[in-house]
């Protein structure tokens, strides 16, 4: 490949596409790009990468081995979604008021970043943080 690819989509397999889109648009202020008529696919704008949603029992899950959902009481999965903010504390509180489950309140990290963690309505781990401030 001469040119590296651009990350096009991050897809969240969820229980209810409409409820997840509603949560993410309210909690993170993301604009809905589209929801198909069947409510089995939706897209939110996040900048250069699209955040998409599809049901847990989508046809592709049968092909690729199914989807394991996360819960509050188990270790997190090997992928998390990160959103960056200038005012991490205010963003964190807003996200929790919108229905996210608080996992760890924001704290300053030794590498110069402030980070908190929540789970979305389907148990997906989300980092609410700042960018690392280089000296």
UniProtKB/TrEMBL annotation:
Residues of the VOC domain: 6-131
Superkingdom, natural source: Eukaryota
Organism ancestry: Eukaryota, Viridiplantae, Streptophyta, Embryophyta, Tracheophyta
Residue ranges that the Swiss-Prot or TrEMBL entry lists as coiled coil: none
InterPro entries with a match to the protein in the record: Glyas_Bleomycin-R_OHBP_Dase, Glyas_Fos-R_dOase_dom, GlyoxalaseI/FosfomycinResist, VOC_core
The name this protein goes by in its record: VOC domain-containing protein
């Amino acid at each position: 490949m001469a040119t590296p690819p651009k990350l096009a989509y991050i897809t969240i397999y969820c229980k209810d596409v409409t409820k997840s889109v509603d949560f993410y648009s309210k909690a993170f202020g993301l604009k809905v790009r589209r929801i198909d008529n069947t409510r089995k696919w939706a897209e939110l704008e996040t900048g250069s990468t699209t955040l998409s949603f599809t049901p847990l029992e989508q046809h592709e899950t049968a092909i690729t081995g199914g989807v394991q959902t996360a819960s509050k009481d188990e270790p997190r999965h090997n992928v998390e979604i990160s959103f960056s903010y200038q005012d991490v504390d205010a963003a964190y509180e807003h996200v929790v008021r919108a229905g996210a489950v608080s996992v760890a309140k924001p704290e300053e990290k030794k590498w110069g970043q402030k980070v908190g963690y929540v789970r979305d309505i389907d148990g997906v781990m989300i980092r609410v943080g700042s960018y690392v401030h280089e000296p």
